[in-house]
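Is this the right way to post structure tokens for a design question? Let me know if I should format differently. Anyway, here goes:
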């Protein structure tokens, strides 16, 4: 049989020169050929992908997971146990994981490797006691974090807060804003917002909440505005130790804590209003009136009259004298 005919049979294309089978036999044969076609196409796809990697100078190896260390750059707040379990079952079922992970020679140990991306596949192989297919590529730290960030952003749904914390870590490592944007596939505006959230909210609060996959930028920025008040932030730090908080899943923990700090903020605002003392003053000739407001945070004097500006200028010019009189004790006794 010619090579053309052999290939056509493998991919399920009948040759005009072949005799047509009976109807029932033809149906079963077509089913078998379609299955062979799909299997061959998948194999060819794997081979083609591997060929591209080899052509670029990369090497594909089957490595012992115990010879591989995790990335020095951690861009996840917590592992997704459900996704890990799903991948573990898929590898058990198929017998192997065709997609290789990316590793680099370990920068501090020539006998080991470091993961760039593919931590989940590496963990599954380790649990199953099997080797993991890996592309070995010699890259520097900056290329490492960019490749890892881009792969994770594209392949897995890193949450807003995970990306925010990753941006903060990169900035702490001395990486430029351009590197941060490239690694996380974000623009300037989003990078600024992420860094603002990560630098304002106490990291103990963030790690206690977790990845919070369903909580987006606006909700985290609302949390940020609330904890800008140090008293509210301290309340949040107390609340994350509450047993009720610990029993919730990540998204629920965020919602629970946000409500708690909102209530605290409203209570603090109500207490502040209660402490405000308001009085009025009117000159003997009724030409000037003033509203006076005093609270723990300050003192306000508002003068209402056509000549209020002139009287205000007079007060401003004499502030030094008035303050000196106050400090001398004369003003304190009045």
């Amino acid at each position: 049989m010619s090579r053309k005919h052999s290939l056509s049979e493998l991919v399920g294309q009948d040759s005009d020169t072949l005799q047509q089978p009976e109807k029932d036999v033809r149906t079963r044969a077509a089913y078998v050929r379609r299955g062979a076609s799909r299997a061959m196409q998948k194999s060819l796809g794997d081979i083609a992908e591997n060929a591209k990697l080899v052509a670029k100078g990369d090497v594909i190896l089957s490595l012992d997971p115990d010879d591989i260390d995790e990335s020095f750059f951690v861009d996840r707040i917590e592992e997704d146990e459900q996704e890990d379990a799903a991948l573990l079952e898929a590898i058990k079922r198929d017998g192997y994981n065709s997609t290789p992970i990316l590793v680099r020679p370990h920068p501090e140990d020539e006998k080991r490797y470091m993961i760039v991306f593919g931590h989940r596949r590496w963990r599954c192989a380790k649990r199953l006691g099997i080797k993991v297919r890996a592309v070995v590529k010699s890259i520097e730290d900056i290329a490492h974090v960019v490749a890892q960030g881009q792969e994770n952003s594209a392949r897995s749904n890193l949450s807003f807060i995970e990306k925010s914390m990753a941006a903060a870590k990169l900035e702490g490592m001395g990486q430029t804003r351009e590197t941060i944007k490239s690694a996380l596939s974000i623009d300037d505006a989003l990078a600024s917002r992420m860094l603002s959230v990560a630098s304002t909210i106490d990291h103990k609060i963030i790690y206690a909440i977790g990845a919070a996959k369903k909580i987006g930028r606006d909700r985290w920025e609302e949390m940020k505005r609330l904890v800008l008040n140090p008293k509210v932030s301290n309340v949040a730090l107390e609340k994350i130790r509450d047993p009720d908080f610990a029993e919730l899943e990540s998204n629920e923990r965020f919602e629970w804590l946000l409500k708690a700090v909102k209530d605290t903020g409203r209570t603090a605002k109500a207490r502040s209003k209660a402490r405000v003392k308001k009085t009025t003053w009117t000159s003997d000739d009724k030409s000037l009136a003033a509203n006076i407001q005093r609270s723990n945070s300050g003192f306000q004097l508002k003068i209402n009259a056509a000549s209020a500006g002139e009287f205000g200028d007079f007060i401003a010019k004499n502030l030094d004298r008035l303050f000196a009189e106050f400090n001398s004790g004369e003003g304190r006794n009045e």
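Format looks fine. Someone answered above. Worth noting: Residues 277-328 form one domain. The beta strands are 59-63, 68-69, 101-105, 113-117, 132-136, 277-282, 289-295, 298-304.
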